[in-house]
Amino acid sequence: EAAEKGGYPHYMLKEIYEQPRVLENTLGGRLSEARAGVELDLRVDPTRFERVHIVACGTAYYAAWVGKYLIEGLARVPVEIDVASEYRYRDPVVDERTLAIAISQSGETIDTLEALREAKRKGAGTLGVINAKGSSITREVDDTLYIHAGPEIGVASTKAYMAMLGAMAMLAVWMGRARGTLPEAEARTFLGELRKMPRLVEQTLEKRQEIAHIAEKYHQAADYLFLGRHIQAPTAYEGALKLKEISYIHAEAYPAGEMKHGPIALIDERLPVVVLTTESPIYEKTLSNIQEVRARGGRVIAVATEGDLEVRRFAQDVIYVPRTHYLLSPMVSVVPLQLLAYETAVLLGRDVDQPRNLAKSVTVE
Length: 365
Ligand code: G6P
Prior knowledge:
Its EC number is 2.6.1.16. The protein is 43% helix and 17% strand.
């Protein structure tokens, strides 16, 4: 087993460190800056549908949420996202102009499979964004986009999430180009940034020591709050999910702008608040949310873009991540949150790879 972990103490840490290579595999040979497009080799016709429904569970659901911003942003198609256990029982409005996408690492999650079947029964075209080759979902969809993350052993998903984000970025460009909503020059810039992503993710791994230090500072906290806006809202939710899954610290995530409608009541000097505040068109808005936290004594851990000195005035701790296109910022920003969860769980002596009550894939309802 030690050999399988490649010298790492846990599978999860090994898988976190595999992310740059994994992303290279996901994107591998599929990006074409010359043609300002993405080659996905799918039978689905990206011009045929009028709406997209994405269903998934757990971490894959947060990839769906990121995917919504990417697809709506670049391809201007309305996207609805649902946790699969809700979708399958809500009698969704679906027709043949709907593309239903199921995102799943295992391809075996029963709720995701049943949600997909529901969309299919109602006439939707179907696409799987899947890691496991030949898994149940891949056998029922019209088409599969494999994410090529390799086997993931740690129950808390890390590298599969990264690969899902890469796949959603490619799908968004693919749809945007085919539908004529994404101009060539813009596509080229975006693809250039996407191609750099494995290297940028690699750089974020260098922050491990710094993050271990922050984990040390706050590992006795009873609760954590994670905040983010727009495409970084799902990053906040994924950060909170990772922390609660493996450290058992209660963690809540919220869209930062919505904090004033509830969670602000929780803030005091004992509450660490992680805020995703990377560069984006709404950067200033998030900065003012940080000030609201600070004014109430909260401890702010900001995840910010390299070179942002302003944020230092309001946050006790700043974890810098490399600059990229704001629609790609979740990829560089989730890594510090994975490491924060990991280091915290290790400090608390938790079973990182086999957290209590959780299963790697949930095949019963
Ligand atoms: C379980 C796992 C999660 C995973 C979720 C969905 O809850 O513990 O890590 O995100 O299932 O799994 P899937 O295989 O469908 O991506």
